[in-house]
Amino acid sequence: MCGRFTQSYTWDEIHALFEVAGAARNLRPRYNIAPTTEVDAVVDRGQGREVASMRWGLVPAWWKKGLKEVPATFNARAETVASKPMFRDAFRRRRCIVPASGFFEWTDAAGGKQPHFFSAADGGVLAFAGLWDRWTDPASGDELLSCTVIVSGANGWMAPYHDRMPVLLGAADVAGWLSVEAGPEVLRPAAEAALREWPVSKRVNRPGADDDPALVEPVDLEPEAGALL
């Protein structure tokens, strides 16, 4: 799936890629984003594209219980996003793009899970296909914007690390996705040459504890016990 990612880019990069409106502003870099925290999302609510802050973990508008009772909705499967009750209304009406500088997946290793960082092969910003919604807390009356990242099956290159991967929208798909004109046909695995990978510090395994640029720097893996050197 996609359970941790990074957002580290400039306003100029986002403006150029997604043609967002509004005055330039500073965007806080984040290197260890976990579900239920705030993320940047590109949306079009009828007055041009904008960058909005949203909870990562979609809460549908019709949800009647409390926020703590929402199931895990930080990812939506491409195969069922158009029909699953938690996502289908947002799929029809409220699409977004979640910009990312990269994401993490894990492999088994001695001493605990080994995180790997995946970023665009050209070093650019990734465009995760997403959905968003607006929910009102029945107890407090507070409004909450939230989103989810859509994931597809993994391509052959990604498969050794995980059987799922975020859907990466190409430049030609952005307008159709945000306008809700594009259908499920754009929710396909990325090309195998789209990403690059390297192992990173196990500090990534502590969401909320560490959030600094060193988290995405390459590290040397220790040889497994008994391995020939």
Could you describe the 3D structure shown?
This protein has 229 residues and is mainly beta. The chain has one domain: hypothetical protein yedk fold. The protein is built from three helices and twelve strands, in the order βαββββαββββββαβ. Strands 3, 4, 5, 6, 9, 10 and 11 form a seven-stranded mixed sheet that branches. A five-stranded antiparallel sheet has the order 2-1-7-8-12, with no helix packed on it. A hairpin with a 4-residue loop joins strand 3 and strand 4. The radius of gyration is 18 Å and the shape is globular. The two termini are 34 Å apart. Mean pLDDT is 93; it is low at 225-229.
Q: Kindly, what is the distance between the CA atoms of the first and last residues, rounded to a whole number of angstroms?
A: 34 Å
- Helical residue percent? under 10%
Helix and strand composition category: mainly beta
Summed up, the domain count is 1
Strand content: 25-35%
Shape: globular
